[in-house]
Specification:
10 helices, about 290 residues, Rossmann fold, 3-stranded parallel sheet, globular, 11 strands, about 40% helix, alpha/beta, binds nicotinamide-adenine-dinucleotide, 6-stranded parallel sheet
């Protein structure tokens, strides 16, 4: 029997828990967590993501500030905004929505974010702390997947976990987290990418398959074994004759053929996506409590 890993439901549960926590903080006269987001330019997908993050803050009772900057913002101007947020005691954590316009060096901006306010977990110091299994802000999407595996009590110890994709925001951190000596974790991990030869040989051996490559319905039934746990991170808009908009969201996994073989599977939408937002909120609460950097 296949069980759905319901990210929408678990994300709602986490947000309800946060809502109750905010009530307690208010009763005790504590500081309400405050997340800021910087959005540069008018990229449609980025606008949607940032709007969802701000809305989620409001829903759980966090404060949020959205700083919209024009596409023409220079690197120097953005660095100045980042420095302002670094020193503003009211802001507990913030994100700079990626991608940035081409004329801005993303790494330079990420390195300028104060690690204690880096709730996206992208600063090299936080990435290093993750690799060393030290307390840190885990990047939101991998953290969301970890929480999903944890809440469904998926057995990961000693399992073979195959991760497809080596991006800094999903695949690479996911491979580190699944290999570390923790639960969820303790897997034997294989990290596959665009230069992997004979990908199918690896995917067929996976007990847990985490797919983050951005190619809709790439993983088909013949590529997986019976009982596999599937985490589908991909989200791509593809044309659809059956929806009003003419589009639908597709994952990297061909759901209809793969799901019957899987023991657990995340749907798209409603799987990893909602968990990403919940994780950002959890990181913001940790920042406001100074849990990571005392
Ligand atoms: P990316 O484009 O940065 O990385 C893609 C990776 O896939 C690369 O490392 C590449 O080596 C690998 N790859 C490409 N073709 C391959 C092939 N044929 N075989 C094996 N590996 C191959 O992508 P990303 O930012 O990691 O995002 C991946 C997908 O996840 C996208 O669809 C993105 O929209 C989605 N995403 C979803 C969330 C969420 O919250 N659900 C968050 C981040 C990204």
């Amino acid at each position: 029997m296949t069980e759905i890993l319901d990210g929408k439901l678990i994300s709602q549960q986490i947000q309800e828990e946060l809502f109750l926590e905010i009530d307690r903080i208010k009763e005790q006269g504590g500081k309400i967590p405050h997340l800021a987001a910087i959005l540069v330019g008018n990229d449609g997908a980025s606008e949607t993501y940032v709007a969802a993050k701000v809305k989620a803050c409001e829903k759980v009772g966090f404060k949020s500030t959205l700083l919209r900057l024009p596409e023409t913002t220079t690197e120097q101007e953005l660095l100045a905004k980042v420095n302002k947020l670094n020193t503003n005691p009211e802001i507990d954590g913030y994100i700079v929505q990626l991608p940035l316009p081409k004329h801005i060096n993303e790494n330079k901006i990420i390195e300028a974010i104060a690690p204690q306010k880096d709730v996206d977990g992208f600063h090299p110091q936080n990435v290093g702390r993750m690799a060393l299994n030290l307390p840190t802000y885990l990047p939101a999407t991998p953290y969301g997947i970890i929480q999903l595996l944890e809440r469904y009590a998926i057995d990961t110890t000693g399992k073979h976990c195959v991760v497809i994709g080596r991006s800094h925001i999903v695949g690479s951190p996911m491979s580190i987290l699944m290999a570390r000596n923790a639960f969820p974790g303790n897997c034997t991990v294989t990290l596959c990418h665009s230069r992997t030869a004979n990908l199918k040989e690896f995917t067929q051996k996976a007990d847990i398959l985490i797919v983050a490559l951005g190619k809709p319905e790439f993983i088909t039934a013949d590529m997986v074994k019976e009982g596999v746990v599937i985490i589908d991170v991909g989200i791509t808009r593809i044309p659809s004759a059956t929806t009003k908009s003419g589009f639908k969201l597709a994952g990297d996994v061909h759901y209809d053929s793969v799901a019957p073989k899987a023991s657990f599977i995340t749907p798209v939408p409603g799987g990893v996506g909602p968990m990403t937002i919940a994780s950002l909120l959890v990181n913001t609460l940790k920042a406001s409590r100074k849990e990571i950097y005392k």
